[in-house]
Known about the structure:
By secondary structure, the chain is α+β, with helices and mostly antiparallel strands. It has 5 helices and 10 strands; from the N terminus they run H-E-E-E-E-E-E-E-H-H-H-E-E-E-H.
Amino acid sequence: MRRTPIRSTAPTAVERVRSILAAAHSMTVVCDGRHEEVRRLDGAGAMGHFHLHAPFEGAGAGAGPGDRTSGRIPVRLELTDVAPTPVRDRLRARVTLTGLLARPYDPDSTESTCMEFGQGTLEDASGRSYVTLHELEATELDPLATSEAGMLTHLVDEHAELVPLLLRLVRPLPGGGVLRALPVGVDRYGLTLRLEYRRTHRDVRLAFKTPVRHVDHVGPQIHALLSEARRVSHTGRLLT
C-alpha cells in the first residue's frame, strides 16, 4: 500500500539555520580570546563572510576544537534571529557555529574567511537542535529568507487591518483576552502570528496550501489565506 507523503508545515531546524545565516545583518566572532562585532555583511549573510568546509584529513585532523597543537585556532560565530515586527519578546532564535581557523581572525579582511566546520546549534523556544555541515549544504535556501523582514513590515505598516482577519483561521479560536496579534514570521511553508495576552503570548502557524518555490509566489498564498478567512464565519470579537 502506497503511503501519502507528509506535507511539511514548518521549517526544520537546519532550514531555519540556513535562513538565519543568509539573512543575518551582523554577528559576533569569538576567536583567540577576542569578541569582534561584524556588522558589514553587505547583504551576503554570514556565509558571504565565512566559507565553511569539512574537517581536514590527515595529521592533526583529530584534534579537538580547543586543541592548539594542530596550529589551528578555535572560532565561534554567534548570530541572533530577531523578529522585524514590534512584537513582545522579539528574539526568535540563536545560532552558534563552532570550528577552526588556520590563522587568527582578521576583522579588517575583505576576503571570505575559511572556517573548518565543527558544530552548528540552533536555540529557540522549542529547545536546542544540532546541525551538521552536510545538512546545511544539502538544504535549499528558503526563497523568502532574505525578503522576510520587508514582507512582514509591509504587512504591519500598510495592511494592519488584515491581521485580525487571519485570526479566523486559528484553531481552536483564540477567544477573548487577545490584546494584540502581529505577524512574527513568514517562510516557504506559512505565516506565523504572535497572539499577545496580558501576561503571556503564543505563536500560531497558518500553513500555505503548498510550499512557496519563489519569492513572487508568496503574495498569492497570503491572498489565499485571506480569502479563506473571509469565508469562515466570524464568531464574536477576537480582540478585546
